[in-house]
Amino acid sequence: MLSRVVLSAAATAAPSLKNAAFLGPGVLQATRTFHTGQPHLVPVPPLPEYGGKVRYGLIPEEFFQFLYPKTGPYVLGTGLILYALSKEIYVISAETFTALSVLGVMVYGIKKYGPFVADFADKLNEQKLAQLEEAKQASIQHIQNAIDTEKSQQALVQKRHYLFDVQRNNIAMALEVTYRERLYRVYKEVKNRLDYHISVQNMMRRKEQEHMINWVEKHVVQSISTQQEKETIAKCIADLKLLAKKAQAQPVM
Amino acid sequence: MNENLFASFIAPTILGLPAAVLTILFPPLLIPTSKYLINNRLITTQQWLIKLTSKQMMTMHNTKGRTWSLMLVSLIIFIATTNLLGLLPHSFTPTTQLSMNLAMAIPLWAGTVIMGFRSKIKNALAHFLPQGTPTPLIPMLVIIETISLLIQPMALAVRLTANITAGHLLMHLIGSATLAMSTINLPSTLIIFTILILLTILEIAVALIQAYVFTLLVSLYLHDNT
């Protein structure tokens, strides 16, 4: 806390130190360095692909190369073995036979199953790598798919105006249709009303005609006196007799 | 001959200092660790083997039993490598010493028993009487079960010691027999063949690890779960 007081005092004294006030509690740990620079394990130093070459499973190739200018390594080996045996530095005992059998079984096992185990180990490693590769490829594929869908969406957006045009056309057509419908309805209604008036007129005229005809007939009938009626009837009868005589004469031929 | 026969079982000393400690500490050097994902063939096969055995062993335990997995897996690896290294000529096998096997068996067995008694005392005591025994036999059976429980660590240790020691002795004897027979040629080839067969059977000393860890495992399981 005292450090904070000191720091605030220092801040008022020198404005450039004001930023340091925020580091108050951290000042104590300023002497410790965290995460400065790369940790030593990164980048990981690569492993060699194959181990050193070895002859007879035990003796490295460099040994032979080292000896070749000076002496033959096989002669050296044979000489050493014979020396050890003859001077009884190495004693042939019961252990010799056990050693022979153990080493014999080991060599037999390694020669027979060595490549199989090696392939198995390689297969295990390859499986691990394949898994990681699969994960990476799946991730890449996923992102690629996302990119493709995004691009197709963008292309669709470019063609959106077609949709709007079609919609606009549709709406215009619908408006046109309703307008025409209404126009037709108006026409029909007006015609209806005019037809009504016309039919009323017709009816009135017909009624007047009938009435006139009836009136005229009535008066004509009224005006025919009885004497005229008798005269006309007698004339008709005379005409009919004449006609009958004329008619009778014909069928004799 | 007698002196020579058991000479390989004397704990080795270098100028009075015990080299048996070095012999015991040597096998872990053969099992490298690696911070890489893709390793060389040795590490890959070893990791695969360890994964296989640990999975096989620990599936039948519950959560509490699986806290012992590191202990049991390291136990089986230690005994396996030590036994296999003892097959090499002129080598010393620490598991031939009863002292070491007792030092391994007693603490582990006692650990499981105490764990069982601490958590479920009724279950642990119930082991002393199998189910469905006729009533007059109960006292005798309890005594027999107690004895069989108390003899478990001794059995574990002595089993391992006896098997390995017997195998080594046998190999030594038959080797000396071939040595003697090598002056008379005809039967020597036959006996060398028997050595070979004996050796391959002895490489089932690795099966002893299975026996060791399995018995330990079974007792742990029983104490924990039932």
UniProtKB/TrEMBL annotation, chain B:
<dbReference type="GO" id="GO:0015986">
    <property type="term" value="P:proton motive force-driven ATP synthesis"/>
</dbReference>
<keyword id="KW-0496">Mitochondrion</keyword>
<keyword id="KW-0472">Membrane</keyword>
<dbReference type="GO" id="GO:0015078">
    <property type="term" value="F:proton transmembrane transporter activity"/>
</dbReference>
<comment type="similarity">
    <text>Belongs to the ATPase A chain family.</text>
</comment>
<feature type="transmembrane region" description="Helical">
    <location>
        <begin position="191"/>
        <end position="222"/>
    </location>
</feature>
<feature type="transmembrane region" description="Helical">
    <location>
        <begin position="67"/>
        <end position="86"/>
    </location>
</feature>
<dbReference type="InterPro" id="IPR035908">
    <property type="entry name" value="F0_ATP_A_sf"/>
</dbReference>
<keyword id="KW-0066">ATP synthesis</keyword>
<dbReference type="InterPro" id="IPR045083">
    <property type="entry name" value="ATP_synth_F0_asu_bact/mt"/>
</dbReference>
<dbReference type="GO" id="GO:0005743">
    <property type="term" value="C:mitochondrial inner membrane"/>
</dbReference>
<keyword id="KW-1133">Transmembrane helix</keyword>
<feature type="transmembrane region" description="Helical">
    <location>
        <begin position="98"/>
        <end position="117"/>
    </location>
</feature>
<dbReference type="GO" id="GO:0045259">
    <property type="term" value="C:proton-transporting ATP synthase complex"/>
</dbReference>
<dbReference type="InterPro" id="IPR023011">
    <property type="entry name" value="ATP_synth_F0_asu_AS"/>
</dbReference>
<keyword id="KW-0812">Transmembrane</keyword>
<protein>
    <recommendedName>
        <fullName>ATP synthase subunit a</fullName>
    </recommendedName>
</protein>
<comment type="subunit">
    <text>Component of the ATP synthase complex composed at least of ATP5F1A/subunit alpha, ATP5F1B/subunit beta, ATP5MC1/subunit c (homooctomer), MT-ATP6/subunit a, MT-ATP8/subunit 8, ATP5ME/subunit e, ATP5MF/subunit f, ATP5MG/subunit g, ATP5MK/subunit k, ATP5MJ/subunit j, ATP5F1C/subunit gamma, ATP5F1D/subunit delta, ATP5F1E/subunit epsilon, ATP5PF/subunit F6, ATP5PB/subunit b, ATP5PD/subunit d, ATP5PO/subunit OSCP.</text>
</comment>
<keyword id="KW-0813">Transport</keyword>
<keyword id="KW-0406">Ion transport</keyword>
<dbReference type="InterPro" id="IPR000568">
    <property type="entry name" value="ATP_synth_F0_asu"/>
</dbReference>
<keyword id="KW-0138">CF(0)</keyword>
<dbReference type="Pfam" id="PF00119">
    <property type="entry name" value="ATP-synt_A"/>
</dbReference>
<keyword id="KW-0999">Mitochondrion inner membrane</keyword>
<keyword id="KW-0375">Hydrogen ion transport</keyword>
<feature type="transmembrane region" description="Helical">
    <location>
        <begin position="6"/>
        <end position="31"/>
    </location>
</feature>
<feature type="transmembrane region" description="Helical">
    <location>
        <begin position="164"/>
        <end position="184"/>
    </location>
</feature>
<feature type="transmembrane region" description="Helical">
    <location>
        <begin position="137"/>
        <end position="158"/>
    </location>
</feature>
